[in-house]
Amino acid sequence: MAYELPVMLNCEGRLCLIIGGGKVAERKASALREAGARLCVISPLLKSARLAGWADDGSIEWKARAYREGDLNGAFLVHAATDAPDVNAKIAADADRLGILVNVASKGSSGSFTNPAVLRRGRLTVAIATSGAGPMASVTIKEQLEHQFGEEYEAYLDFLYRMRTAIKDEVELPEQRRRLLHKLYRLDILEEIRRGDNANAPWDPDKIKQWIEQNREE
């Protein structure tokens, strides 16, 4: 069995296409908007009210027609999300020929990528894929992980980001950086955040600098 390769794609400012105007297209568009993509939807009709609203306010570009050859030129990735399997297959073939990433809603295995279930907690992203065991399996696992990774992880990852940035800015020697980062990840800040101990979590800039100076040489 060949496993799919998990990756994180930077779609910000990149042209991403969605062919289709229904609920599936809406879900794909919602995720791409959150990723900052430059989004174009191609469909004779927009059956989704949210898609129509985004088209009206200029959040997405809408081409009110059917897919035709040449539409994929310049695209970073494409979602084939029409209700016609033959059209989706044509889109997938065109994308493959052009070397463009393509997801096929009606038959995921015929595309070059699939969309996992996603759990987000600020900077934390957990993607769940089950390699064909079914979307409900992914949803069930996601619900279980939501209890394990609560809202406190958003503050925790923000704290780690600020600390790591400060260490990189304040400390030049690589060995000192590594030592400080090892100490950072052993701190019990997550538990302090869960307890609501605002005296320690998150730290203010002065406390961060003080911690770096105290632990730099140890």
From TrEMBL:
UniProt keyword annotations, A-Z: NAD, Oxidoreductase, Porphyrin biosynthesis
Gene Ontology biological process: siroheme biosynthetic process
Enzymatic class: oxidoreductase
Keyword Oxidoreductase attached: yes
Pathway membership, UniProt: Porphyrin-containing compound metabolism; siroheme biosynthesis; sirohydrochlorin from precorrin-2: step 1/1
Catalytic activity field: precorrin-2 + NAD(+) = sirohydrochlorin + NADH + 2 H(+)
Enzyme Commission number(s) of this protein: 1.3.1.76
One MF annotation (Gene Ontology) recorded for this entry: ferrochelatase activity
InterPro entries attached to this UniProt entry: Met8-like, NAD(P)-bd_dom_sf, SirC_C, Sirohaem_synthase_N
Name of the protein this chain belongs to: precorrin-2 dehydrogenase
